[in-house]
Amino acid sequence: MKTILVCFIFLLGSAVVFGQPNDVPTDWQAGDVWTYELKKREATRWQERDEKSLIVFELKITGSKPGKAGSYEAEWRYLSINTLPDENKYDSCLNLVRKFLLHTPLRLSFSKDGGFEGWTDLPGLRIALLATQGLSNHQKRSDDCFYMQDFIRKSQGDSSDFLSGYVPEVKQFFKSLMLLSEDSHLTRDTVTVMENELAGRMEIPKTINRVVRTSAAGYEVSLNTALSPAAFKQFKTAGFEKAWIEMGLPVESMATAKARLEAFQPQRKETMLAVFEKPNGVMKRFVYQYDEYVSPMEDDLLVYEFVRK
Questions:
Q1: How many whole angstroms separate alpha carbon 206 and alpha carbon 185?
Q2: How far from 204 is each of 13, 50, 273, CA to CA, in Å?
Q3: Which of 69, 200, 259, 263 is the one with CA 20 to 30 A from 276?
Q4: Minimal CA–CA distance to 163: which of 53, 285, 78, 44?
Q5: Is residue 275 within 8 Å of 9, Cβ to Cβ?
Q6: What are the tens digits of pLDDT across the range 229-274?
Q7: In angstroms, how far is CA 106 from the centroid of its own chain?
Q8: 99 CB burial (10 A radius; 0-12, 13-18, 19+)
Q9: How many Cβ atoms from other residues are within 10 Å of residue 303's Cβ?
């Protein structure tokens, strides 16, 4: 309740413009390999966190997905994972997961339209990770790693995908391919559904602006989305007075807090820019940025920049 109220006291929107359709063939073959460098940043003032990572990985096409036209099977292999400026500040359990990832190829499938279709052997990865030396030694409830093991152990399949939580960049990477198609999930997603115990369930309109630039070398596609400022603010401010009273906060301070709330404009937006080469549609560069301003004291920033080496 406290988090909800803070969000209230302190956040975007709207029309749809599409570029012209473009057709970049993605006729990839088994054995095609690309290496990428990823610069990742995750920052939030609420937690006083500003984490920066430099990651290098290799993506190898291993073949077409059996029985599914237009889908590929691939192997994602981490070559290096460096967290800046000080890796020692991170939980030792997460460091064990990083070491596991550096020695374990991740097999997956995806569609040529950018849809991540799942891990080829999630149960096997779960078993291997739980057996990792160091992580498997923590069997006491007093150990932080015990709770990590418990979460991984209870993840029985894609419906409770523990792996994506440790490697969120994988799904973000394939999102770049969705930009190639004018009719994709990204361009059809014109409404965001949000829900909490005070505001209930609300559909918030979303603006989508897609621009395509073409040259002899390839395509540059940008896609910007933003939630409706008015609807997002309505969602964030719903139930403010009720939450204030339920938390036992001073009634005489409510007017001042409400004035601050009315003066603040919450917002949420995503920006994407991808460059693809001709003739095979290989992604050369992809920048994804997510911005959310929930209150004057709380915001979130997420930036991924993939560059092919």
A1: 13
A2: 9, 29, 24
A3: 69
A4: 78
A5: no
A6: 999 988 888 877 778 888 888 888 888 888 888 888 889 999 999 9
A7: 18
A8: middle
A9: 16
Cα–Cα dist 293/44, whole Å: 10
Instruction: State the pairing for strand pair 218-227/49-64.
Output: unpaired
Q: Which residues lie below 8 Å from residue 23, measured CB to CB, with a gap of 6+?
A: none
Q: Where are the beta strands (DSSP E) in 65-190?
A: 71-84, 106-111, 116-119
Backbone phi and psi for residue 53, each to the nearest 5 degrees, phi listed first:
-130, 150
**Both tokens assigned to 142:** 């007093």
**Spatial separation of the C-alpha atoms in residues 278 and 291, rounded to whole Å:** 31
Query: pTM, whole model, 2 decimals?
Result: 0.82
Tell me how far CA of residue 117 lies from CA of 40, 153, 171, in angstroms: 23, 22, 10
DSSP 141: T
Q: Which residues face 73 on adjacent strands?
A: 63, 109
Helix axes 122-130, 92-102, angle to 10 degrees: 130
Q: Are 304 and 273 in contact (CB under 8 A)?
A: no
pLDDT tens column, 14-39: 333 334 445 555 678 899 999 999 99
Spell out the residues 6+ positions from residue 308 whose beta carbon is closer than 8 angstroms to its own.
34, 35, 36, 282, 283, 284, 285
Tokens coding 288:
């994804």
Q: Look at the block and give the residue holding tokens 């989305």.
A: 225
Gap between the Cα atoms of 262 and 23, Å rounded: 46
